[in-house]
Design goal:
The protein is an alpha+beta fold. The chain has helices at residues 10-22, 27-40, 50-61, 90-95, 100-115, 123-130, 140-152, 167-180, 210-218, and strands spanning 25-26, 66-72, 79-85, 121-122, 156-159, 162-165, 186-187, 194-195, 198-200, 207-209. Helices cover 44% and strands 15% of the residues. It starts with 9 loop residues before the first helix and ends in a 19-residue tail after the last helix. Keywords: Chromosome, DNA damage, DNA recombination, DNA repair, Metal-binding, Nucleus, Telomere, Transferase, Ubl conjugation pathway, Zinc, Zinc-finger.
Length: 237
Protein backbone atom coordinates (compact mmCIF):
# COMPACT_ATOMS: atom_id res chain seq x y z
CA UNK A 1 0.00 0.00 0.00
CA UNK A 2 2.00 2.95 -1.31
CA UNK A 3 1.54 6.38 0.18
CA UNK A 4 -0.01 8.56 -2.48
CA UNK A 5 1.64 11.91 -3.03
CA UNK A 6 -0.61 14.66 -1.68
CA UNK A 7 -2.80 16.23 -4.35
CA UNK A 8 -1.66 19.28 -6.25
CA UNK A 9 -4.29 22.00 -5.86
CA UNK A 10 -4.76 25.29 -7.69
CA UNK A 11 -2.96 26.91 -4.75
CA UNK A 12 0.10 24.73 -5.40
CA UNK A 13 -0.02 25.50 -9.12
CA UNK A 14 -0.35 29.22 -8.51
CA UNK A 15 2.58 29.17 -6.06
CA UNK A 16 4.77 27.30 -8.56
CA UNK A 17 3.85 29.69 -11.37
CA UNK A 18 4.84 32.76 -9.37
CA UNK A 19 8.06 31.11 -8.20
CA UNK A 20 9.00 30.27 -11.77
CA UNK A 21 8.31 33.75 -13.04
CA UNK A 22 10.31 35.33 -10.19
CA UNK A 23 13.36 33.13 -10.79
CA UNK A 24 14.07 33.35 -7.07
CA UNK A 25 11.92 34.29 -4.07
CA UNK A 26 13.07 35.38 -0.61
CA UNK A 27 11.78 33.28 2.33
CA UNK A 28 9.39 35.83 3.84
CA UNK A 29 7.94 36.51 0.39
CA UNK A 30 7.46 32.77 -0.15
CA UNK A 31 5.59 32.53 3.16
CA UNK A 32 3.31 35.42 2.16
CA UNK A 33 2.78 33.84 -1.25
CA UNK A 34 1.89 30.50 0.40
CA UNK A 35 -0.83 32.20 2.43
CA UNK A 36 -2.07 34.23 -0.54
CA UNK A 37 -2.35 31.16 -2.80
CA UNK A 38 -4.19 29.10 -0.19
CA UNK A 39 -6.63 31.90 0.60
CA UNK A 40 -7.23 32.79 -3.05
CA UNK A 41 -7.92 29.19 -4.03
CA UNK A 42 -9.72 28.31 -0.78
CA UNK A 43 -7.25 25.61 0.16
CA UNK A 44 -6.51 24.79 3.82
CA UNK A 45 -3.66 27.05 5.00
CA UNK A 46 -1.28 26.26 7.87
CA UNK A 47 1.35 28.95 8.40
CA UNK A 48 4.05 26.53 9.57
CA UNK A 49 3.55 24.08 6.70
CA UNK A 50 5.37 25.83 3.85
CA UNK A 51 7.92 23.01 3.60
CA UNK A 52 5.17 20.38 3.30
CA UNK A 53 3.39 22.54 0.75
CA UNK A 54 6.60 22.73 -1.29
CA UNK A 55 7.36 19.01 -1.00
CA UNK A 56 3.88 18.26 -2.41
CA UNK A 57 4.78 20.41 -5.43
CA UNK A 58 8.19 18.71 -5.66
CA UNK A 59 6.68 15.22 -5.72
CA UNK A 60 4.70 16.29 -8.81
CA UNK A 61 7.70 18.00 -10.40
CA UNK A 62 9.90 14.91 -10.03
CA UNK A 63 8.86 13.25 -13.32
CA UNK A 64 9.64 16.55 -15.06
CA UNK A 65 13.16 16.58 -13.54
CA UNK A 66 12.46 19.82 -11.74
CA UNK A 67 12.54 20.81 -8.11
CA UNK A 68 11.96 23.80 -5.85
CA UNK A 69 15.16 24.19 -3.87
CA UNK A 70 15.90 26.22 -0.80
CA UNK A 71 19.20 28.08 -0.49
CA UNK A 72 20.76 30.69 1.73
CA UNK A 73 21.81 34.19 0.71
CA UNK A 74 25.53 34.59 1.32
CA UNK A 75 25.00 38.25 2.20
CA UNK A 76 22.54 37.98 5.05
CA UNK A 77 21.93 34.27 5.61
CA UNK A 78 18.24 34.48 4.63
CA UNK A 79 16.45 31.56 3.00
CA UNK A 80 15.51 31.80 -0.69
CA UNK A 81 13.58 29.47 -2.97
CA UNK A 82 14.26 28.79 -6.65
CA UNK A 83 12.92 26.32 -9.20
CA UNK A 84 15.79 24.20 -10.49
CA UNK A 85 15.90 22.15 -13.65
CA UNK A 86 17.66 18.86 -12.88
CA UNK A 87 17.62 17.49 -16.42
CA UNK A 88 20.20 19.75 -17.96
CA UNK A 89 23.21 21.45 -16.51
CA UNK A 90 22.53 25.10 -15.90
CA UNK A 91 25.11 26.19 -18.42
CA UNK A 92 23.10 24.39 -21.13
CA UNK A 93 19.97 26.01 -19.81
CA UNK A 94 21.64 29.42 -20.06
CA UNK A 95 22.62 28.55 -23.61
CA UNK A 96 19.06 29.09 -24.76
CA UNK A 97 19.12 32.66 -23.41
CA UNK A 98 22.62 33.87 -24.28
CA UNK A 99 25.00 33.81 -27.19
CA UNK A 100 28.13 31.68 -27.17
CA UNK A 101 30.37 34.68 -26.56
CA UNK A 102 28.21 35.88 -23.65
CA UNK A 103 28.36 32.42 -22.10
CA UNK A 104 32.11 32.35 -22.45
CA UNK A 105 32.33 35.66 -20.61
CA UNK A 106 30.04 34.25 -17.91
CA UNK A 107 32.14 31.08 -17.50
CA UNK A 108 35.35 33.10 -17.28
CA UNK A 109 33.74 35.42 -14.73
CA UNK A 110 32.64 32.40 -12.73
CA UNK A 111 36.24 31.10 -12.81
CA UNK A 112 37.51 34.40 -11.41
CA UNK A 113 34.89 34.45 -8.66
CA UNK A 114 35.37 30.83 -7.59
CA UNK A 115 39.17 30.99 -7.71
CA UNK A 116 39.26 34.27 -5.78
CA UNK A 117 40.04 34.48 -2.07
CA UNK A 118 36.79 36.10 -1.02
CA UNK A 119 34.26 35.14 -3.69
CA UNK A 120 34.38 38.39 -5.67
CA UNK A 121 35.84 39.47 -9.02
CA UNK A 122 36.44 43.12 -9.86
CA UNK A 123 34.89 44.61 -12.98
CA UNK A 124 38.43 45.57 -14.10
CA UNK A 125 39.57 41.94 -14.04
CA UNK A 126 36.42 40.77 -15.81
CA UNK A 127 36.65 43.45 -18.51
CA UNK A 128 40.31 42.53 -19.10
CA UNK A 129 39.09 39.04 -20.01
CA UNK A 130 36.72 40.43 -22.61
CA UNK A 131 39.42 40.92 -25.21
CA UNK A 132 40.89 37.44 -24.66
CA UNK A 133 37.76 35.43 -25.42
CA UNK A 134 38.17 32.46 -27.77
CA UNK A 135 34.79 32.86 -29.50
CA UNK A 136 35.67 36.39 -30.55
CA UNK A 137 37.00 39.45 -28.78
CA UNK A 138 34.44 41.56 -27.00
CA UNK A 139 34.75 45.34 -26.63
CA UNK A 140 34.75 46.64 -23.05
CA UNK A 141 31.53 48.61 -23.62
CA UNK A 142 29.86 45.47 -24.92
CA UNK A 143 31.14 43.42 -21.98
CA UNK A 144 29.80 46.00 -19.52
CA UNK A 145 26.35 45.64 -21.11
CA UNK A 146 26.51 41.84 -20.88
CA UNK A 147 27.48 41.99 -17.20
CA UNK A 148 24.51 44.27 -16.59
CA UNK A 149 22.21 41.69 -18.17
CA UNK A 150 23.71 38.89 -16.02
CA UNK A 151 22.94 41.01 -12.95
CA UNK A 152 19.38 41.74 -14.13
CA UNK A 153 18.83 38.04 -14.84
CA UNK A 154 20.12 37.16 -11.35
CA UNK A 155 23.17 35.10 -12.36
CA UNK A 156 25.58 37.65 -10.91
CA UNK A 157 25.20 40.30 -8.27
CA UNK A 158 27.31 43.41 -8.01
CA UNK A 159 28.48 45.64 -5.14
CA UNK A 160 30.73 48.66 -5.77
CA UNK A 161 32.16 47.29 -8.99
CA UNK A 162 32.78 43.83 -7.50
CA UNK A 163 30.84 40.85 -8.86
CA UNK A 164 29.85 37.62 -7.15
CA UNK A 165 27.41 34.80 -7.93
CA UNK A 166 23.77 35.63 -7.22
CA UNK A 167 21.93 33.43 -4.70
CA UNK A 168 19.81 32.11 -7.57
CA UNK A 169 22.93 31.08 -9.46
CA UNK A 170 24.34 29.29 -6.41
CA UNK A 171 21.09 27.38 -5.78
CA UNK A 172 20.83 26.35 -9.44
CA UNK A 173 24.50 25.65 -10.08
CA UNK A 174 25.65 24.12 -6.82
CA UNK A 175 26.09 20.61 -8.30
CA UNK A 176 27.68 21.96 -11.46
CA UNK A 177 30.19 24.04 -9.50
CA UNK A 178 31.03 21.28 -7.02
CA UNK A 179 31.74 18.82 -9.82
CA UNK A 180 33.55 21.23 -12.17
CA UNK A 181 35.68 22.98 -9.56
CA UNK A 182 36.43 20.01 -7.35
CA UNK A 183 39.81 21.27 -6.15
CA UNK A 184 38.67 24.75 -5.19
CA UNK A 185 34.92 24.78 -4.57
CA UNK A 186 34.31 24.40 -0.86
CA UNK A 187 31.27 23.72 1.25
CA UNK A 188 30.62 25.82 4.33
CA UNK A 189 31.80 23.98 7.44
CA UNK A 190 28.66 25.08 9.30
CA UNK A 191 25.71 24.75 6.91
CA UNK A 192 27.39 22.37 4.40
CA UNK A 193 26.19 24.18 1.31
CA UNK A 194 28.45 25.66 -1.32
CA UNK A 195 30.32 28.73 -0.04
CA UNK A 196 31.44 31.33 -2.59
CA UNK A 197 31.76 34.41 -0.39
CA UNK A 198 33.51 32.94 2.60
CA UNK A 199 36.25 33.23 5.16
CA UNK A 200 38.91 30.55 5.18
CA UNK A 201 40.90 29.17 8.12
CA UNK A 202 44.57 30.00 7.62
CA UNK A 203 45.62 26.80 9.39
CA UNK A 204 43.43 24.05 7.97
CA UNK A 205 41.70 25.71 5.01
CA UNK A 206 38.03 25.10 5.84
CA UNK A 207 35.63 27.81 4.71
CA UNK A 208 32.54 29.36 6.24
CA UNK A 209 29.86 31.70 4.86
CA UNK A 210 30.01 35.16 6.42
CA UNK A 211 26.53 34.87 8.00
CA UNK A 212 27.55 31.44 9.36
CA UNK A 213 30.81 32.90 10.75
CA UNK A 214 28.80 35.63 12.45
CA UNK A 215 26.36 33.16 14.00
CA UNK A 216 28.98 30.59 14.99
CA UNK A 217 31.32 33.00 16.76
CA UNK A 218 28.52 34.88 18.51
CA UNK A 219 28.49 32.17 21.15
CA UNK A 220 32.29 31.85 21.54
CA UNK A 221 34.46 33.84 23.93
CA UNK A 222 37.34 33.76 21.46
CA UNK A 223 37.04 32.80 17.82
CA UNK A 224 38.63 29.41 17.14
CA UNK A 225 38.28 27.29 14.02
CA UNK A 226 35.49 24.71 14.42
CA UNK A 227 37.73 22.12 12.77
CA UNK A 228 41.33 22.58 13.93
CA UNK A 229 40.70 24.85 16.92
CA UNK A 230 43.39 27.34 15.83
CA UNK A 231 42.70 31.04 16.41
CA UNK A 232 40.42 32.45 13.66
CA UNK A 233 42.46 35.26 12.15
CA UNK A 234 39.89 36.83 9.81
CA UNK A 235 37.85 39.83 10.94
CA UNK A 236 34.51 38.61 12.19
CA UNK A 237 31.77 40.42 10.22
Amino acid sequence: NTVMAAQMTDAHRRFLQVLMSNGITEGSEARKLHQHCCETDKVYYAHDKLDDFISTINSHLQPLFMQIRKGISEDDGRAHYAVVNLAETEVTKMASDYTEIELELFRKTMDLIILSENGFASSTDILNLADQLKTKKMKKKEAEQVLKVFVEDKWLSEKNGEYTLHTRCIIEMEQYILSNYQDVARKCNICHSLAIQSQVCESCGIGMHLPCVRKYFRAQTEPRCPKCNEFWSCDIP
